[in-house]
Amino acid sequence: SFTEWEITEWSEQQAVFNFLYDAIELTVVFGPPIDGDVFGEDPSRPIVSLNFESLLDEEKAPPSSCLVRRLIFQFIESQGCWQEKCPTLYYLPQVLHDVSLVVSCCKVLGEEIEFLERWGGKFNLLKTEVDDTKVKLLFSASTAFAKFELTLSLSANYPSASLPFTVQKQIGNIGEEEISAVLSSVPTGHHYLRRIVSLIHQNLLQDPR
C-alpha cells in the first residue's frame, strides 16, 4: 500500500507525521503507556489528541498548492473529532491511510492544474486560474468563434464525483448546455480535470470543417 506520510518524530509523549512535501503536519499526543509496554507501542495505548497543522507559506506557494492544501483541510475538517476516530494506537494506521488517500488524489489534481497552466494553449485554454476551491478555465478558439469561461467547483472527494460548474459566455454560442453535454460524457477518475479540458477542446473548439 502506498504512503503519503513520513514520521518526523516518535517520542514517549507524541508522534509527528508530515504529508504533502512537509506542507501538512499531524501531531499525535499519546496517553500514558499501558503497563509492561516497554516501547510505548501497545495498540491499546490511548491517544489524547490528533492535531493537523498547515506549514504551507500561502504567500509564496503556487496557487495550485494552496488549492490542494485547502481541499485536504476541507476533508480533515469534515471528519469531525479525529480523536474519537482514533482513540488508541490501534486506529492510527487507518487514519494515516485515509488521509494519504485524499492527499494523493489532491496532489494529482495540483499537478493537473500546473499542466494546464503550462500547456493549456494546446487545448485553446487561454488562462487557468485558481480561486479558493474553484478553478476557472478561459477557453478561446477563433476557428469555432467561441470564447467562454468555465468555472469548476472542486472538493476533497476529487476525482470520484462529477464537478459542479458554471459557464460564462463571452463570444459565440457555447454555454451551459453544450458544456453539460461534454461533461456528462467524461467519466470520473484519474486525470479527470485534464480529460474534461481535452474533450471540450476536441468536441467544441475544433475547426468545424
Automatic annotation (TrEMBL):
InterPro entries (alphabetical): Blinkin, Knl1_RWD_C
Domain Knl1 C-terminal RWD: 1-109
Pfam families, alphabetized: Knl1_RWD_C (PF18210)
Organism from which the protein derives: Burhinus bistriatus
One GO process term, biological-process aspect: attachment of spindle microtubules to kinetochore
Entry GO terms, CC: nucleus
Alphabetized CDD domains for the sequence: DRWD-C_Knl1, DRWD-N_Knl1
Name under which the protein is recorded: KNL1 protein
